[in-house]
């Protein structure tokens, strides 16, 4: 009897008999973002039983999420928000100058700024994440740009696996894409996938408007055109600079496509794939089984219930129902940049010293887990024109630059239009009205990769410590490159002439004269830059590359299974 019960997964938590029948699947996938969703769908479609565990709830039918243009509302919506707060460095004086520093006031609300009311506690720099079915692809800006080919080729070089070469990674993009902006059979694109792609409509270039004039100047100063395909399989794409259309993972009706829509389609498929999605299920630990001195992951422990994680604004310390779920083949962790290393560490996989500090039994001493956190630096040239800017709203273009000190490949990706993007804080962004114009810049090859995600405690409901350690190495070169890019954009937009000019610049050189030293502008960029955190994964915009990684991972898992047979 005891044996049978054990085989059925009897377990006891806090002295109570909880459950007698073990829940098991071939695969457990943790996290339903661009990393986890395609893996879960592909493995289920290949005939395996799969459970997808997601801490958040399903908001796919809520217009904040289903309509891509509502991304700012989605980003501020407490139904999905996970509020992380990070540091940009260990330099307290530098941290203290970050203008959008967030504090918890005595009455429990947020204060954003440098002069908090008495009794406030400093939280840090806000990094939002979405805990919902589909992950951050449900609230992100939706920009889909493939990385430089050099970024994929680098992974091939360090792993010795040629499938990572850019020319071989293309097939994964072709598989996932449902292109809606090119004529059929354009090389390097797909038409039958689940990530619908569309571009910003270039027809605004035919109108007599201020936005058309500004974009014309961007083209005159950097090259390209407003309809150019940013994801074309150009053999020389790493050197290809100037203006492109902005591509998004949304369909022509502005509906967000990718994670949530793929999962829904997989569940609804008449083929009845064996996919079980479990929402409001926080994975707290991987269960490890030892055999012949070798560990293997055989399942996960979970807390079932809503608002189980400290980053959730509605978290109140309540502990959901404990549970265990088993996997016959593999446990796949795709919890995003902050949560994947946390889950691994809580499971005893990480730097032994850190694990011991929190009394976590070491399964595998892997010093790299949660270390070498790399990040793109983001900064913006933002200015107010002398008049309200007319023209089609949404007339936003992408611009690539290769500044004079760039190494080998283009190093800046920007997007320019009449909007305001200055990073994230609770309640972001600040709108400056119809005269606002910005070229938001991403440095796509930062020289430093010294950030980390470390445990604060062994309590899986608590957030880890996150420090991005910006500019730790090669900072001056990276800042020079961002400043050179800002100068190019400043020159271009000022060339639009009256009545649009003069611009009253907000940053990095405030005022109408733009009379600042290089040092002052670099200091501004250094103190106020921000980014979407990302470990060493290619590109300026990680979402489409992450879909490709998930496609490669599922293809590799299925190929391994074939070999085993
Ligand atoms: C505000 C914002 C804007 C962005 N804009 C863009 C953009 O325009 N273009 C672009 O390319 N990229 C953008 N990104 C980045 C992009 O969305 C992410 O790189 C991408 O979503 C990462 O995918 P992921 O699957 O690794 O992680 P995520 O999307 O973070 O998904 C992880 C999922 O795992 C779940 N999870 C975490 N821990 C647990 C646990 N313990 N148990 C159960 N579930 C768990 C989370 O709830 C979440 O649903 C943006 C990101 C943000 C936050
Ligand atoms: C789906 O998978 C579960 C877990 O492995 C299993 O119990 C169930 O029988 C499967 N359903 C079908 C229809 O095969
Ligand atoms: C959308 O998000 C906002 C917060 O940004 C929230 O106030 C609003 O209720 C949400 N709308 C829906 C339909 O959930
Ligand atoms: C926009 O404003 C300019 C003046 O800056 C004017 O010449 C032009 O006709 C206006 N265009 C539209 C579409 O309103
Ligand atoms: C994406 O394209 C498919 C057809 O390829 C279509 O059925 C679907 O409605 C489109 N939109 C979304 C959000 O998936
Ligand atoms: C705490 O949160 C849980 C889960 O959302 C909820 O069920 C419970 O009512 C909350 N308790 C209090 C005191 O607010
Ligand atoms: C620019 O600033 C310097 C130093 O503050 C000042 O001496 C100079 O007059 C300014 N030039 C203009 C054109 O405003």
**Outline type:** globular
- Quick check: average pLDDT? 93
Number of strands: 25
Bound molecules: flavin-adenine dinucleotide, 2-acetamido-2-deoxy-beta-D-glucopyranose
Distance between the termini: 34 Å
Biggest β-sheet: count, sense, barrel? 6 strands, mixed
Low-confidence segments: 1-19
Strand content: 15-25%
How would you classify the helix and strand content by structural class? alpha+beta
Measured on Cα atoms, how large is the radius of gyration? 24 Å
**Residue share in helix:** 25-40%
Number of helices: 14
Widest sheet: strand ordering: 13-4-3-16-15-14
Cofactor: FAD
Pfam families: GMC_oxred_C, GMC_oxred_N, NAD_binding_8
Organism: Xylaria flabelliformis
Signal peptide: 1-20
Throw out a few tags for this protein.
565 residues; alpha+beta; six-stranded mixed β-sheet; six-stranded antiparallel β-sheet; 14 helices; 25 strands; 25% helix; globular; disordered N terminus; binds flavin-adenine dinucleotide; binds 2-acetamido-2-deoxy-beta-D-glucopyranose
Question: Secondary structure elements and their pairing?
Answer:
Elements lengths: L1 H6 L3 E3 L2 E4 L3 E8 L5 H10 L4 E4 L9 H4 L4 H5 L5 E6 L5 H4 L6 E3 L5 E3 L8 E10 L18 H11 L6 H11 E3 L15 E5 L10 H13 L19 E4 L1 E2 L10 H10 L6 E4 L2 E11 L2 E11 L16 E13 L2 H11 L2 E2 L1 H6 L6 E2 L11 E8 L12 E5 L10 E6 L18 E8 L8 E3 L10 E3 L7 H20 L9 E4 L10 H11 L14 H22 L1
Parallel strand pairs: 3-4, 3-16, 4-13, 9-10, 17-18
Antiparallel strand pairs: 1-2, 5-8, 6-7, 6-8, 10-12, 11-20, 14-15, 15-16, 19-22, 19-25, 20-21, 21-22, 23-24
The chain binds flavin-adenine dinucleotide and 2-acetamido-2-deoxy-beta-D-glucopyranose (6 copies).
